[in-house]
Amino acid sequence: MIRTVLLAIAAAASLPSGAEAQSRPPIPAAVFAHIDQLDLGCRARGGRAGEGRFIVAQDFTGDGRPDYLIPEHDYVCTGRPQAYRRRDGEARIALFVTDAQNNAVRAYYEWVLSYEVIAGQPAPVQVVRQGAFCGPGSAPRTRCSARLEWTGRIFAHGPLTVMDAPPAVAAAPVPAPIPIPGAGPGAGEPPAEPAQVAASLAAAD
Hints:
By secondary structure, the chain is α+β, with helices and mostly antiparallel strands.
């Protein structure tokens, strides 16, 4: 399927502008292939592929070439606006990097709550994730952020910063025995074990 794809160039973009932008290389085939898969998934969910700005073109590796970030939650699926977002609020983002021949490979593809392209050269990408990703023992709704670091082959998560965590729930106190009006000592206490009952009977004899 061929359709118009609009690019969202980050405000801090360091890619060429004006007349130089006319020589910017075309969007690589691998990026279009990913978009085609989103179109297919949208139609399979009963929606219709729409138009919109959902690709960020920016140099994310520092080689001076445009790379491409696709936040799937920004994909316009008319009739199914939540097609690519899970119930926990997460959606995938894909990062494609290009080489000198304008071939692109996907170097990052993960579920995130949100992302931010930060001003810089190269432009860092900060992601927010939640749950087990935030470390051992993290609650499902614990959120943390990490900056993506280019390793020369893929984007890896840098050091984590925990943003928030649900408050600890205190253990409920054990209720005291409820006294029974008119009952003798020990009323409301748990029943005695059989061995204790036998010992009490033997003492009475």
